[in-house]
Automatic annotation (TrEMBL):
It comes from Streptomyces lonegramiae. The keyword Signal applies. Belongs to the bacterial solute-binding protein 2 family. Residues 57-312 form the Periplasmic binding protein domain. Its main location: other. Keywords: Signal. It is found in: Cell envelope. This is Substrate-binding domain-containing protein. The keyword Signal applies. PANTHER family: D-ALLOSE-BINDING PERIPLASMIC PROTEIN-RELATED.
């Protein structure tokens, strides 16, 4: 199979991380003369950074009990501060379904102009999304998707299947000359569809490398403690490992502790999400962690851009359509030592 470099291409740089929030996604939503001319030619107003109609955005995000989830909240808040015509009404954030439904209902009763919702459980919160839409409040569904497309006006989120696919391809290319290569997978929460998609993408990528066998898999629940415990189990059970695919850089902190304690360094490890600690380790290149596949929390900043455009009845510059798209999938670029400097500023704590 020819070498695949989609994960480090210029396209990946444009659609991978922070570029999505203020650059690639809404490139022409800044005051760019050529894009304004294109908008005028198509009789379509394009959102830009100039103050316009005031928009109150209700933001119902997650409980910040994880590095990536905290970064989601911070990206949304920081982006909203860039606009003098935006007021952001935020909830406390909750991973409890009933509590989050109550928080969203409060925002609906306040008659916010637009809602941005990252549901604790997409299926369980579908009805409250429908309620908002029927009340005339457009919903930007962030990442974990509702069961019905009628429950949101626009969905923006990560490419979980692509994340696993790119991780598997990266590992496959690194091990393609090695006979009987063995890899293990440290997954996240198995009751989440996103975890299943990441595994499926990884497994599909490995089908292209018949010399590689996935010999074990453990779910580590996205926590440091479980990451350490589950990685220790994998190391104890497998005397020979050539690569590890770890779904999440937070649980990867624990996994790396287990690896260090076991004194194992014969394999390479690929992480997931793009935590600052992971990017720094990749740059130093002194351990087993050689790459991470991005799942950029800057998608929350993009969600604020989309909500503002919806509230102002504007489209996205650079597109011929009058309306904003119904869905946007963020690209999962692979970051290794060759391109880590270009992504270092996007790392989250």
């Amino acid at each position: 199979m020819p070498e695949q470099r989609s994960f480090t291409s210029r396209r990946g740089l444009l659609f991978g991380t922070a570029a999505v929030s203020a650059g690639a996604l809404l490139t022409a939503c800044t005051s760019n003369e050529s894009n304004e001319a294109a908008a005028a030619e198509n009789n379509r107003p394009a959102a830009d950074d100039k103050p316009g109609k005031h928009v109150t955005i209700g933001f119902a995000g997650p409980q910040a009990d994880h590095g990536w989830l905290n970064a989601i909240n911070q990206n949304a808040k920081s982006r909203a501060k860039n606009f003098s015509d935006v007021t952001l009404e935020t909830t406390e954030g909750s991973n409890d379904t009933a509590q989050q439904i109550g928080q969203i209902e409060t925002l609906i009763n306040k008659k916010v102009d637009v809602l941005v919702i990252l549901p604790a459980d997409g299926k369980a919160l579908t009805q409250v999304g429908l309620r908002a839409m029927r009340a005339g409040i457009p919903v930007v569904n962030l990442d974990r998707i509702f069961n019905s497309s009628q429950a949101y006006r626009c969905w923006i989120g990560g490419d979980n299947y692509g994340m696993g696919l790119n991780a598997g391809t990266y590992i496959g290319e690194k091990l393609k000359g090695k006979k009987n290569a063995k890899v293990v997978e440290l997954a996240g929460l198995d009751n989440l569809e996103l975890t299943r998609q990441r595994t499926k993408g990884f497994d599909d990528a490995l089908k292209n490398y018949p010399n590689i066998e996935k010999v074990a898999r453990q779910a580590a629940d996205f926590t440091v403690e479980s990451g350490q415990a589950k990685m220790a189990q994998l190391l104890q059970a497998q005397s020979k490992i050539d690569a590890v695919w770890n779904h999440d850089d937070d649980q990867g902190v624990g996994a790396l502790r287990a690896i260090e304690q076991a004194g194992r360094d014969e394999f390479l490890m690929v992480g997931g999400a793009g935590a600052l600690s992971a990017l720094q380790a990749i740059k130093q290149d002194k351990g087993v962690l050689k790459a991470t596949v991005l799942y950029p929390p800057s998608m929350a900043a993009s969600a604020i851009d989309l909500a503002r455009a919806l509230g102002q009845s504007k489209g996205i510059g650079g597109l011929s359509q009058y309306e904003i798209p119904a869905s946007l999938t963020v690209y999962s670029a692979v970051v290794d030592k060759d391109n880590v400097d270009q992504y270092m500023s996007t790392g989250f704590k």
